[in-house]
Amino acid sequence: MxxxxxxxxxxxxxxxxxxxxxxxxxxxxWYAWNEEALEKAKSENKLILISVGYSxxxxxxxxxxxxxxxxxxxxxxxxxxxxxxxxxxERPDIDQVYMMAVQLMTGQGGWPLNCxxxxxxxxxxxGTYFPKQNWMNILLNLADTYQHDPEKVLDYAKQLTEGVxxxxxxxxxxxxxxxxxxxxxKSVNNWMPRFDNTDGGPNKAPxxxxxxxxxxxxxxxxxxxxxxxxxxxxxxLKKMAxxxxxxxxxxxxxxxxxxxxxxxxxxxxxxxDNSQLVTLYCEAYQKTKNSLYKQTVYxxxxxxxxxxxxxxxxxxxxxxxxxxxxxxxxxxWTKTELQDLLKESFELFADYYNVNQRGFWEHENYILLRHDxxxxxxxxxxxxxxxxxxxxxxxxxxxxxxxxxxxxxxxxNKIITSWNALMIKAYADSYTVFDEKYFKDIxxxxxxxxxxxCCDTNGKLTHLANSSINGFLEDYAxxxxxxxxxxxxxxxxxxxxxxxxLMNYAIEHFQDEKSGMFYFTSDxxxxxxxxxxxxxxxxxxxxxxxxxxxxxxxxxxxxxxxxIEMSRKxxxxxxxxxxxxGAGYSNWAMLLLNFxxxxxxxxxxxxxxxxxxKNLNKHYHPNxxxxxxxxxxxxxxxxxxxxxDETLIYVCKNKTCLAPVKEIEDALKHLSQxx
Length: 675
What we know:
The protein is of the alpha+beta class. The chain contains 26 helices and 18 strands. Strand 6 (256-257) and strand 7 form a beta hairpin.
């Protein structure tokens, strides 16, 4: 519906994406990506501007204010271009293609992403954020070149499009796959010089959490008894949880830190980061029993429930970095403000959260962050740790109540299938490790919501809840992982069968038979200028590495050797990358761990299955899958194993099963053999 108070309204007013709606009243004649816009470009022979961003993106807002809200700039854009706005979270397929084009042209990428293309979609020029005057110059120069020297533009488009098609092209590894631990050792040895062993994470800035990096390193350290590596992982997890990147008052992590100290965050909070970090801290707690990790999980899930959970059970996408036009305003405090609010508790709170030079940011504002452990702060202030923790807990509760009354950052209320699946897995992992029934209930509630709103009876997914946008490979990959995790906490075999159904759909509609890898888009989608594959792991694991891991797991659950062979072929294609660049292939490296170390199938059958499962989960053994039932089951790992009035534990590896045992301690001995 048109906003009668706005001077301008464009075609984006009919969209549902919060990011697109933010631009619906720009003087630019924005279109969404659709046939109407593309045909208009062809019929008018105009260049296309594809401008990509997302609602929580700070510099996207800056460029909107400076350029897209300016009528003079808008006139240039409208006169010479067909302008298309894309929400990268809604259409990651479009973002992938034009991001690759910009990276090839400039050597870097990011958002806002602005790429110019021919009327047929082939890219010719692009970049990220442009100041207003630069932007106007680019608009005029491109329009002039296209009008007076179109052959030059066409030649460049041809070359660039070929580059986009060739980039990240799968190199099929024709050699016999031989997976050894030596590849992982070389990968870690190449990686370790880039560690920051003072502040954790990589020795560079900005710093992104990259949870799958530390999940792999944790597992590798466990398998190899490498204490140096374990210490680096623990240092990183501690520094992140102590840093400004973590919301010390409300829980949850910001997207990244702009410095090497994890101090100053880019304040946007994304569902995908927090879901994966919950999983990482759960796994680290299971290994180490460090109470900080438990606290981090519980506070982060409290944030998710409070700020990113829909009434129907789905999870929203993100919170903006800005509020009231200022980045971070919602989260920071002045010293005077804290003194007035906390009164006699201020000095202790200020010492604990560094309301001092260490925590000072800008404009008299402080970012709350920790530096010393509780015992050190308590001793310095001559109080017991119990007293300290009570004061801090009371202060945090008080400040959260006050903060809730502030104007909140913008909420992106899209419910994205893939990101929701990551959060389902996070809740399932939290239940596995901490045995809170509440976490299990939320995981299963959201799973049921997603299955109803994003999945049809044939195994076809949509990318968003109640949307017509086809699911991408990431939706299938992470949904399968969520279903596998939910099977292990509920023992509902429907979840396993649903995961298998989704895998069959993905194989049919996404797999490239020649390479064995999977395209990001379905063969039922309208083609873009090229069909990309997502191979390297980033802030979210590559959809190919996730699918390969799930093929391995489902292959064991259903005794489908063809699944395991598919997984093996995919992994073989990236062996060289794992060795040379572990940080970009860490999810693949976890699959290589499964292939190159003893991998166990553990089955518990009998009336005490849940009790045995809970006791088992107190121990860290990532190199296994688990199946269980309180009664007869036809699942391959459980068939003919039920015995009335007994609960038996079966441990198998390499298609060989040991004699069943009744006690968890005996099963743990079997699991620890050859580790």
